[in-house]
């Protein structure tokens, strides 16, 4: 039987060696995922399986559907110390529906793998709840309903305040890469010296989400901040090809970590007196403003690195001025058509 403590903690390992969960079947699955997925997916898989078996303290081959439903119920409960706190988006106090849905997908993937290698007879994670209406449509109701929410964005004044609160040219260049170019946090940190193309006013994303590559146009302001950083702040003996590195401490000259970038943004947000500002919100702000400025949705999709246009459609709803303008234009056409019909009827 799995215990809740030592076997579900990542084992200490040399750099580059795959993490383990301490159970042969789980570790085989993690190795399988690692052979076909990106490193962040592997990390998420480890985290999700650790969360599931921390609640369902059973051997994987003994898990039944009731255990999965119990896990969902536990994830929905308010977190310790936050019993009276609920999210405005869905009115719940537990983990978000998206997090629970992702964890269920990971667990379902595990048991799909165990079915494939004949360790279990069936996947205990149900595809959904069958209803009379769903049966007529040939589908099922999802186990976890995920609300469609709009991401937060920053107003122009908030962006200016955040940038003014940054203390290094390095930090300004990273923020501008997100708020002017729409780069993801991992894409900013993954930039290498050879990826910079100031003569073309573009940067090359060599390892975007899902391993996809693209060329991203960038504003001249970003390259000016970047040049100041490279000329005055980046250590000459930096031992990495990555552009953005730690500037002090024992890791000076090494590639900046995601935690390091998050801390830079958090500290600047506090100094600027902002209620919210994150790397992802900076990216959303960029893509929303581009859409508001009239950039075609397909162009926004290419800039963002979205594989599906559906991922980009959310910026139709965020771009309030554009949406209002489109509505007024359509309403005027409809009103003119009605007036013409009234004239003709007389």
Task: Provide a descriptive summary of the structure in words.
The chain contains 15 helices and three strands. With 346 residues, it is mainly alpha-helical. It is globular and about 70 Å long. A three-stranded antiparallel beta sheet has the order 1-2-3, with no helix packed on it. Strand 1 and strand 2 (202-205) form a beta hairpin. It folds into two domains: 6-137, no CATH class; 156-322, Orthogonal Bundle (hpI Integrase, Chain A). The model is unreliable at 1-15 and 82-92 (pLDDT under 50).
Summarize the structure.
This protein has 2 domains: 6-137, no CATH class; 156-322, hpI Integrase, Chain A.
What key attributes describe this structure?
346 residues, mainly alpha, hpI Integrase, Chain A, 2 domains, 3 strands, globular
Assign an overall shape.
globular
Tally of contiguous helical segments: 15
**CATH domain fold name of the largest domain:** hpI Integrase, Chain A
What structural class results from the helix and strand content? mainly alpha
Biggest sheet strand order reads 1-2-3
Gyration radius (Cα, Å) is 25 Å
Number of domains: 2
The ordered H/E elements are HHHHHHHHEEEHHHHHHH
Per CATH, the architecture of the largest domain is Orthogonal Bundle
How much of the sequence lies in strands comes to under 5%
On the 0 to 100 scale, the average pLDDT is: 83
Task: Give the beta-strand count.
Answer: 3
Distance between the termini: 84 Å
Summarize the main sheet. 3 strands, antiparallel
CATH class of the largest domain: Mainly Alpha
Instruction: Enumerate the spans where pLDDT stays under 50 for 5 or more consecutive residues.
Output: 1-15, 82-92
**Range of helix content:** 40-55%
